[in-house]
Amino acid sequence: MSILDDTDFIRVSTHAAESLVDAYYTALNSARAQLESFYVPVTQLPTGRSLPYISYNGQVFSDPAAFKKSFEEMPWTHYEAQSFDVHVMNPSMNAIESKSKKDHERNMSLVVQVSGYVRLHERKEGPLKGFSDSFVLVPNKEEAGGRQTGSSCEGMSITRFL
Helix (H, G, I), strand (E, B), or coil: what is residue 106? Predict the structure, then answer.
């Protein structure tokens, strides 16, 4: 018998996605220096591909610091997330022997899709453009890395696909 049931997966994934959307778009709007903390530390996979894989407007960043720097150099923008959708990609990323429900809740990967509007240049009067972002939330094995939000997405980091 599984420790987590479907209701648990829905509850945990929804709360994690909501926490991500609130924190991430707040950072994009007013705290761009924090962007780097949302991503997994740079690692090289056996296939030669590195993580995180950050794709933004056709430009690929393999380093969260480079993405943050690029975003800090952009003109002012205001993101307004209108909706999100979340699904559990892998309910058990790593084999764990713990009987703790909390440990199992923090051992899944999620895919989060966000859509909304971005206002360019002016907060109240600039043109509105639609945006759509996709994120993969994964358990963060390193306590020092990744975003710590104090919610059910604590200990999770993102790889961003736009």
Answer: coil
Is 14 part of a structural domain of the chain? yes
- Report the number of distinct structural domains present in the chain: 1
The phi, psi pair for 55, rounded to 5°, reads -115, 125
Give the range of the structural domain holding residue 148, as residue numbers without chain letter. 6-73+81-112+134-161
Per-residue burial over 52-69, b = 16 or more CB atoms within 10 Å of its CB, e = otherwise: bebeeeeeebeebeebbe
Please state, in angstroms and as integers, the Cα–Cα distance from residue 92 to each residue in 28, 61, 88, 102, 157, following that order: 30, 28, 10, 13, 16
The model's pTM is 0.79
Q: Check residues 135 and 83 and name the one with the higher pLDDT.
A: 83
% of the chain residues with pLDDT over 70: 80
Residue 16 sits in a domain of what CATH number?
A: 3.10.450
Lowest mean pLDDT among 69-78, 135-144, 147-156: 147-156
